[in-house]
Amino acid sequence: MTAPLLDVRDLHVEFRTREGVARAVNGVDLRLHPGETLAVLGESGCGKSVTAQAIMGILDTPPAHVTGGQVLYQGVDLLRLPENERRKVRANRIAMIFQDALSALNPVYTVGFQLAELFRVHRGTSRGDAKRRAVELLDMVHIPDAKRRVKDYPHQFSGGMRQRVMIAMALALDPEVLIADEPTTALDVTVQAQIMRLLAELQRERNMGLMLITHDMGVVADVADRIAVMYAGKVVEEAPVYDIYARPAHAYTKALLESIPRLDHKGRALNVIRGLPPALTDVPRGCAFHPRCAYAREICRQETPPAYQIAPQRIASCHFVREVLGV
Amino acid sequence: MFRFIVRRLLQMVVTFFGATFVVYALMFAYVDDPYQALVGDRPITDAQRAALDARFHLDDGFFQQYWHYIRGLLTGDLGETITGRSIGDLLAQAWPVTIRLALLSIVIAAVVAVGAGVLSGIRRGGAFDTVTLVLTLIVLAMPIVVLAPLAQLVLGIQLGWFPPTAGRDAGLYELLLPALVLGSLVIATELRVTRTSVAENLRADYVRTARAKGLAPKRVIGVHVLRNSLIPVITLIGVDIGVLMSGAIVTEGVFNIPGVGFNLFRGIRAEDGPLVVGFVSVLIIVFLVINLIVDLVYAALDPRIRYE
Amino acid sequence: MSDLGELSRTAGKPRSLAGDAWLDLRTRKVFWIAAVLVVVVLVMAIWPSLFTSADPRDCLLARKNAGPTGGAIFGFDFQGCDVYAKTVFGARDSILVAVSATLISGVIGLLVGLAAGYFGGWLDALLSRFIDVMLGIPFLLAAIVLAQRLSSDPQSNGVLAVTVTLGVLGWTTAARVMRSAVLTSKNQDYVAAARMLGAGPGRLMFRHILPNSISPFIVVLTVLLGINIAGEATLSYLGVGLKGDAVSWGIAIAEAGPFVRTAAGPLVWPSVFLAATVLAFIMLGDAVRDAFDPKLR
Fold first, then answer.
1. Where is the signal peptide (chain A) (predicted)?
2. CA of C253 to nearest chain B CA: how many angstroms apart?
3. Residue C28 has what pLDDT?
4. Which domains, ranges and CATH numbers included, belong to chain C?
5. Does B298 touch chain A (CB under 8 A)?
6. How open is the CA angle C31-C33-C34, to the nearest 5 degrees?
7. Is A274 within 8 Å of A292 (Cβ atoms)?
8. ∠A282-A51-A103 over CA atoms, to 5°?
């Protein structure tokens, strides 16, 4: 396999607040290759969005502090770049789209202004040219009547159209990496599919690395190449998408899959995961999942499981990988 | 936008009639002796009585009186004071200096409030923010009757930094101290609203987007946060004009500036009812018009209002 | 995660919003400073003789502008009155007017806000329009007109006139806040539940909606106390407020104005007391608002 575009190693992020220190990210390892779609999956509060924002360098500091690790982009550690260098990476190399496009777009400027701004600031494009590029971008994401709609404000677009504007904005400067943080969660199901199709299409055209952050296993199955499952600020399992559905290797992944309602199990009780994800201010010792885990034994309470390489592209951090896999 | 303006204009017309009616009612409704209500406890001559009748139609019913008063107001006929001077002429002489004073104090207030408000909003809890908060609290606690005489005493007389009084032809320098006093009536609230608004907007999702776009902090704040933060401050200006008008009555009195407030101040002291009613009515019209303008500016700044 | 914390915290003993607010208030420095100031001013208003044995109306022209002596620690003004005694006694009418005017505004605001918010429809439209009209008149301008008319009786000392003026004109903000608080809590599920259980409009309004809408209203009234104290002083300063034998900080400031070049004390001391009193109520309002706002906690 080629060298990864983006290589996150042992990333640590904590939030220092008056109530205490919340360890949102506790040693995340991720790799993203050109043209690949990596889905980062987990419940809310597992640290997936924080990881994304740490890669972008847009965490609010304070309270958030990156306390360790590396974010290598084409071999350069972004965390060590001076801020003005790092700023050039954003939108140019790594771009991001957010969950709720209505609040993520500035309500008082036209979408044309907000698109053109990228060219004006990063490329020094003239006002007229930047406007033209904005129209092209709206065309690219299939917004009808783009010439007229650049003059509209975010609130005048429908939810799906707004998310297209977000995508256009993220792709304006041809980034190699796109991070999409729950891009379809706020949308209707039918619109969700359209947006995912658009993302996939644009990714193919540009051979981009796409990091798709989601809690929706349905979305993942359709588009992802690989999946990284996160729990309590760690990647607990990483595998090609087919493998993970067929044979999960971590007790948490398995429990997640079993909690999806299935038509062929109609009439049976749904398996839900007991309890709630741990508070990040008080992550359990040992394996963070043990209080909710069906496989948990004494060792899970005492020792943090190492990352087992169970196949060329498969990693799982579980003391009972064999039992979960059923071998 | 057009529909918005029309609707807002209609609203203003309703408020205008309502507000003038309320003021008129406050003055004349259910009065045993309207003449005495107008002139206070001084003796009244028959000639004055006749003049008041001609002006206020005090022998007619209340609604007819109001109608005559409104007609006079709309045709620019404000009548005469108790002492027989034309209220319109008085007003015409008084306006220029008051407008200079008001503009100066608005500019001072806006520059200080927005500048300091943005700074303390960005660094909430910092040293600058703490000092600013304490200062605004002190200024907030000073009613104009405290602020104006004390400023005159300390800054004008004891320290001698500013001229302690200003006349009719007062230049910018003479008006600086009164404008500062007047401005500080609204600085504190404007500053606090700016601060809160900036702090809230800094946490907004669109700021994260702007940073993800690789914009420099200066541009994120100056272009994206500022315009959003100013919207609530702009709406505040409408209310502030009323505060400035009230403040001008005392300020112009203290600093001896022969403007609108000063005349009103003297009219109140001399219990000159016609003058007070006339001046107050005109001030209310000005207040309503400025509020209309403020609303239009507000709509221009916030597209969500425009297209409602 | 915070849900769990919330659960365990409230599981032990149910607490009311007011109880929570009080626990929060107790830890705030600003609240204690404000509370001490307010208590001092209140005591001064009720028992001025605790602070001075002098009579503020006992003036001797022979002592005109004299410096501090013995009990008269602030010296004497241009009429030879004891400035300290005048300042201490100035608290009484000031507080009396402000408290009564705030009560009047509170009652009007409460009723108007409740009616507009609860019944809605044309009543709400009418009342809201009326509030708009009232807000179309700068407060002090309306107050001057009304106070001038009410105080035309030369015998009165103006206390009643100023109280009525401030009370009748100052209710708009309170009504607005009450109205929007009622609108918010009216649509809450617990109100719907009470309605389904057969609670009538009166019971709904006063047992279920009012207690949950009252906190922002109380905050507005606290701030209004400060505004009314300033308002009384301003009207008295302008000559349409307290008068005759009334002792008022506003009158004292107005009277001292022309003589500041010879004697600053008679201007400075009532100003300081007036500002400190207004400050106390503003700080109290701020502290109470922060304590009552669960979102900030």
1. none
2. 7
3. 78
4. 16-296 (1.10.3720.10)
5. no
6. 65
7. yes
8. 105
Indicate the DSSP class of residue B158.
I
Across A88-93, average pLDDT? 86
Residue A12 tokens read as 């640590």
Q: What are phi and psi of A277, to 5 degrees?
A: -60, 150
C-alpha to C-alpha distances, A303 to A33, A254, C79, nearest whole angstrom = 32, 21, 87
- Structure tokens, B119: 């700074």
Under 8 Å between Cβ of C270 and C249 = yes
pLDDT tens digit sequence for C160-210: 889 999 999 999 989 988 888 888 877 777 777 777 777 777 777 777 777
Asked if A215 and A226 count as a contact pair (C-beta separation under 8 A), the reply is no
Token pair listed for C149: 């008319």
**Rounded to an integer, what distance in angstroms lies between the CA atom of residue A24 and that of residue C67?**
68
Distance CA A179, CA A187 (A): 18
R_g over Cα of chain B: 23
Q: Which of C140, C171, C242 has the most B C-beta neighbours within 10 Å, making it the best mutation to test the interface with B?
A: C140
Question: Where do runs of H (alpha helix) occur along chain C?
Answer: 2-11, 17-26, 29-46, 83-119, 121-135, 139-150, 159-169, 172-186, 189-196, 201-203, 210-238, 249-256, 265-292
Cβ neighbourhood burial of A159 (10 Å; 0-12, 13-18, 19+)? middle
Neighbours of C140 (CB within 10 A): 24
What is the DSSP secondary structure assignment for residue A277, as one 8-state letter? P
> What distance in Å separates the CA atoms of residue A27 and residue A9, rounded to the nearest whole number?
7
∠ Cα C287 B187 C279 (to 5°): 35
Q: Closest Cα partner for B166 from B254, B248, B95, B264?
A: B254
Q: How many residues are recorded in chain B?
A: 308
Tokens matching residue B186: 């609204």
Per DSSP, the three-state class of A275 is coil
What residues have CB less than 8 Å from B223, skipping those under 6 apart?
A117, B215
The mean pLDDT of chain A is 84
Mean per-residue pLDDT, B23-34: 69
Pairing assessment for the beta strands A37-41 and A226-231 based on DSSP bridges = parallel
The H or E element containing residue B236 is helix B226-254
Closest Cβ opposite residue A100 in set B205, B214, B302: B205
Q: What is the pTM of this model?
A: 0.81
Nearest CA in chain C to B150: C268
Q: Which helix (H) or strand (E) holds B288?
A: helix B273-301
Q: Residue ranges of the alpha helices (H) in chain A? A: 48-56, 83-89, 101-104, 111-118, 127-140, 146-149, 159-171, 189-206, 217-223, 241-246, 251-258, 298-302, 321-325
Q: Is C296 on the interface with A (CB under 8 A)?
A: no
Residues belonging to chain A: 327
Angle at C76 between CA C73 and CA C80, to 5 degrees: 145
The H-or-E segment that residue B180 falls in is helix B172-202
**B216: how many CB neighbours lie within 10 A of its CB?**
14
- The neighbour count for residue A156, using CB atoms within 10 Å, is 15
Distances (CA, A) of C7 to A22, C1, C2, C36, C281: 20, 10, 9, 36, 35
Q: How sure is the predictor about B31, in pLDDT bands with cuts at 50, 70 and 90? A: low
A14, A68 Cβ separation under 8 angstroms:
no
Average pLDDT over chain B reads 83
- Across the A:B interface, residue pairs with CB atoms under 8 Å apart total 76
Place of tokens 């706020």: A186
Please say whether the beta carbons of B44 and B36 come within 8 A. Answer: yes
Q: C169, C147 in Cβ contact below 8 A?
A: no
Residue B258, classed as helix, strand or coil, is coil
Residue C117 token pair = 């918010």
